[in-house]
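ARCHIVE CARD
SHELF: 3
SLOT: left
DATA:
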Amino acid sequence: MDQCHRTYFPATFYLLAGICLLLLTSPVNGWRPWPNQKPNTTDLLYSPSKKYEGSSDLIKLKYHMGPVLTANITVYPIWYGRWSKSQKRIIREFINSISAVDSKPPSVSGWWKTVQSYTDQTGANISGNVHIGAEKTDRSYSHGKSLTRLSIQSVIKSAVTASTTPPLPINSKSGVYLLLTCDDVYVENFCQDVCGFHYFTFPSIVGYTLPYAWVGNSGKLCPSVCAYPFSVPDYMGRGFKAVKSPNNDVGVDGMISVIAHEIAELSTNPLVNAWYAGDDPIFPVEIGDLCEGIYGSGGGGSYTGQMLNGEDGATYNMNGIRRKFLVQWVWNHVVNYCTGPNALDQ
C-alpha cells in the first residue's frame, strides 16, 4: 500500500487516496463504557470457559509481511495546548520506563516484553530500547481547539517543518510521533468512538510517511469513558465504583494506558500492513484492541481483572522508574491470549 503511494501515481492521487484511506480507517474501537454499548468482542467470541484473560482459539492474529519497529524506537512528543510540568513528567516517566529493566516487578518493561516478542519477516524482534527524543510544545493552539484527523497531520507537519524553532527530526524508520492534546482540545470522534488512534502521515500533507499516534486528555471532556476505571459513568450503576488513580491525575493516568496501547500497536503495525487480525487492513484488529479493558488475571468483558492497590489506596498494575501505572495488557501471539507482568500465574 505504501509503495503505491510512493511510486506510480501523481501527487494529486496521493492526496485523494490518502484522504480516502484516512477517513475509512477505523481507530481504536476496543471496549470502553460507551452508553448503550453491547458487550465487547470478548463477550461475543468467548464462552465462559474461554473468558480467562481474553484467551481464544478463534482469534487468528497474522503477520502480513510489513515492517515493524526493530531499530531503537524514538518517541517524539508533541504537546498540543497547555500542559503542566507535573503532567509532562508523568507521561515522560511512563515512556522512559519501557526500557527501565531495573524497575520493581511487575514492571512496565516486563509488559513491553510481550510487544518485543513480535518480529518482522527476517525474524528480528521489536526493539526493547524505547526512549524520548526531541519534543515540541504548541501552547498557542496554532491549529485551533477542534481538530480533525486530517488537521492532526497538519499539526505534525508544523512540528517537523518548523522554521522559528528547531523542527523535530525526520525519522520514518524508528520514530513514533506522539501528538498529545490537552483537556480543552476536542478531536474528531473523541469521547464518542475513540480515545486515541495511530496511523501514518501522508507525503501529500506532511511531506513524509511517518508513523504517528494521537491521544487526548479526557479529564474535562469524558473521564468516565476514556479514563475508566478512574472515573465511572453513572449509568453503569452502583456496582461499578471508580478506583483511585496512581498519580492523582485522572485525565493523565487515563491517557497512560491509551498511550501504551497506541505505542504497542504502532510498533507492531506502523504502516497497517504487519501484525493484525482479520482480512481487512482498513479495519485492523491489533494487539491492543484484543485486550482493551483487561488489566489483570481474570479480565474480560467489562471486568478489568485483578489489579494491585498501593499503600495510598491507588490502583495500579505495574511499576515504572519511580511511579506506578495502570496499563492494559496486550495480545501475546505465542500463547494466544492477553498477557501482562502482574499475571497471577507468573
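SLOT: right
DATA:
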Amino acid sequence: MAYGVTSTTLLLAINTSAASASATVHLAEIGTTLVSGAAHWRFGNVDWTVVRRVGVPGALGAFAGATFLSSLSTATAAPIMSLILLTLGVYVLVRFTVSGLPRDRVGLPLRKRFLGPLGLVAGFVDATGGGGWGPVGTPAILASGRMEPRRVIGSIDTSEFLVAIAASAGFLVGIGSENINFGWVGALLLGGMIAAPIAAWLVRMVPPRVLGSAVGGVIILTNVRTLLLSDWIDASAGIRYASYLVIVAAWAAAVAWSVRQHLADRTVEPVVAGDGPGEPATATN
C-alpha cells in the first residue's frame, strides 16, 4: 500500500528532484506491480472487475499527473509533493488507527460511478505525489465494507500495473530518460520484486489496522522533515527535533492503540451462518 509513497519520500530526502523521484519509482513499479499482481492472483486476492473499473481511469489520471509534475520547477515541486505525501500519511494513520473496518456489507457490488472517479483522482495523486494509489484507493474501498480487506489490497495492487505504465510514459514525455537514474530504478525494482510475493502472502495474516498505523507514521515523519528543511519553512534545529519527538510519540501511541483494538476485536468473534449450536464461532478476522 505504501511502496510508492515510502520510496519517493526517501528519494526526496536525499535531494532527488520531485519529477525524477516519481519517475524512478513508477518505472520500478512496472515490474513490482506485475510480480505483486501475479502473487495476489495466485493467493486469490484479486477481483478482476474492480481491477478493470478502477485501473483504466487510474491510468488516465496518472498520465495527466505525470505531465503536470514534469512542468513544475524543482523548488516548487518538492514541497508540494511533500505536502501531498504528508496528507496521505495523516489520512492513512488516522483512517486505520481510529476507524475500524465495516464488515456488514461484504459481498455487495461496487458501483462504476464510485470506482471510475476514485481511479481518476488516485491516479493523478499517485503521479504528482510519487505515490498514493494504494493510500487513496485502498482505504476508500475498505471504507465501503463491500470487499474483504485482502481482496481490496490485491485488486488495488494489481490495477497499479496500469497506473505505473501510464505515469512512466508521462514522465518520459515530460522530463526525458536522461533525467532518470536507471541504477536506482533497478535497485528499487529488485527489492520490490523480492518483497512483493512475501507481502501478498503476509496480507492474509497481518492486521491491516496495525500495518496502516505503522506505515502512516513513517510517511508523516519523513515528509515533515522535508517540509521543515525546505525554503518554505526553514525551521530551526530546535523546532525540527521537537516536532520529530512529538510525531514519534504520537506514532508509537497510534500503533499501540491499533494493536490493542485488533486484539480486542479478536476476542469478539461473531457466529456466521452455518455454525451449529454448541459449535465454536467462526472467526472473521
